[in-house]
Design brief:
Length: 147
């Protein structure tokens, strides 16, 4: 039997609001006309947010728990402050959506990151000035480049 919140009579992990693809598509089209008409597909959901691809190039993150609003705002601030020339792909909040009657919290979107999940870059390949050796960062055999 799932844990429930007595006050709400629903599972504790249920989102405060449900953000589905039609709602996401609607608010994205209303606030970012240049993206209107692109297909919107849910690609994931966690405890505090739902994530949607928008066309082939964009991804949007929608808060679905009030408790995540402050953390999301801090995350956006940090991501926007990071330098552009980092050695790894980093989410870039380029679209900042505002609350609507249907969606009580801000949301954001940026370029869809295309990352090779099988990449085994060593710390020195990612950060050539790193003093750490690969064995200090992760277990397993070190990968060395020729030369």
């Amino acid at each position: 039997m799932p844990e429930t919140s007595p006050a709400l009579g629903r599972p504790r992990w249920a989102p405060d609001i449900t953000v589905d693809a039609p709602l996401a598509a609607r608010v994205i089209a209303e606030q970012f006309r240049e993206l209107a008409g692109l297909p919107v597909v849910q690609i994931g959901a966690g405890w505090d947010n739902a994530v949607f691809s928008v066309g082939p190039d964009w991804v949007f993150r929608f808060i679905h728990r009030q408790t995540a609003v402050q953390g999301s705002a801090a995350e956006v601030a940090v991501l926007r402050a990071l330098p552009q020339d980092l050695p790894l792909p980093v989410p870039r909040p380029l679209f900042i959506g505002t609350p609507t009657d249907e969606l009580p919290w801000p949301f954001w979107g940026g370029p869809l990151l295309r990352v090779d999940p099988w990449s085994r870059a060593t710390p020195r390949e990612v950060d050539p000035w790193s003093r750490a050796t690969p064995r200090e960062i992760a277990p397993g055999p070190a990968r060395h480049s020729a030369g």
